[in-house]
């Protein structure tokens, strides 16, 4: 479709566009057609002057404006016909006797020129297809052979005067190309007037800074200002970051100490911030030992039932770590906590019962440290306190 020569309307130069579309090239300009129009005016004036130049008809003729052209760019059918004579082409009225065949089989012709008031347009066959080359359209419009006759009848009903073009049209690239590859048109061209009406509201809203949808458009000046503001903001942020880095470097030691202090406070270690009352811890510890001793010395219900059933009432049988044999003394086997006191978590109920039965053997500092370790979950070793090894207290020679 791009190979087809088509001129869009400029001013009132539709006659120029019509001729160039017919010849498929920029063969005529407005100046060329104006020269042809002046030649026709001179020829008509000379014909009228053959009679009496003082006659009222001649005087009236020379006072009238030219009928072949005007200042707007309009040219008459005589100008178009004279221009076509240059290419040995003739124009025949569509209703004349010479054009009867064109009325019956219009698809067999080569081209038509149509005129309505001051507008001219060309309908031409390029390759094996027909096209409407109206300069008021955005581009060539494909017309099928079956629709061509109906289209010509429609133009006549709208008031157009039709002329059949006879003669040999000049060769052109579009004619050769479309003979090989026919055109398939999916989108029909639109009228330039409709396109202008659609663009006018958009241009009006653009001048006010708003689009057709009501949204404000962003101009290049707005984008430039926004870019400058972004760059200045980025520069200020960079300077602020550099000042912060220099401050941190100068106060590195103090900042590190403050951070460590805050970290220690956030840990919530009771041994750091909280004060411990030694008397309160001693009472709690003594009460805990008393409960443990009561649990160790009191036999379970199953052991009592077993002893009553066998008829034994030997106190040694209540010891959980003793074995009684006939004719042998009662021996107490060491517990795992006593054999491996260095093992973590070795503080059991039996060891806690034996440790520090008498508070007088403990120093104040040892009692405080034991109480702190017990409050932390009893997971640390109690084998030594302040460099002094603690021994279990044996009562009554046991």
Question: Can you walk through the features of this model?
Answer:
The structure is a single chain. With 398 residues, the protein is α+β, with helices and mostly antiparallel strands. The protein is 48% helix and 10% strand. The protein has 16 helices and 10 strands. It has helices at 14-23, 30-49, 56-63, 77-85, 100-104, 145-157, 173-180, 192-207, 220-250, 252-267, 270-273, 278-297, 301-310, 336-339, 349-354, 364-375; strands at residues 90-93, 111-116, 119-126, 129-132, 141-143, 161-166, 322-323, 331-332, 384-385, 388-389. The chain has a 6-stranded antiparallel sheet with strand order 1-6-2-3-4-5, with helices on both faces. The radius of gyration is 59 Å and the shape is rod-shaped. Residues 211-215, 266-273, 310-360 and 379-398 have low confidence and may be disordered.
Q: Unreliable segments (pLDDT under 50, ≥5 consecutive)?
A: 211-215, 266-273, 310-360, 379-398
What share of the residues does DSSP label as strand, in percent?
5-15%
Strand order of the largest sheet: 1-6-2-3-4-5
**Shape-level CATH architecture of the domain at 14-200:** Alpha-Beta Complex
- CATH class label of the domain at 14-200: Alpha Beta
**Class by alpha and beta content:** alpha+beta
Whole-number average pLDDT?
A: 74
Number of DSSP-assigned strands: 10
Global outline: rod-shaped
Compressed to H and E, one letter per element, the order equals HHHHEHEEEEHEHHHHHHHEEHHHEE
**Fraction of helical residues:** 40-55%
For the report, how would you describe the main beta sheet?
Answer: 6 strands, antiparallel
Summed up, the helix count is 16
Q: Classify the fold: give the CATH topology of the domain at 14-200.
A: Cathepsin B, Chain A
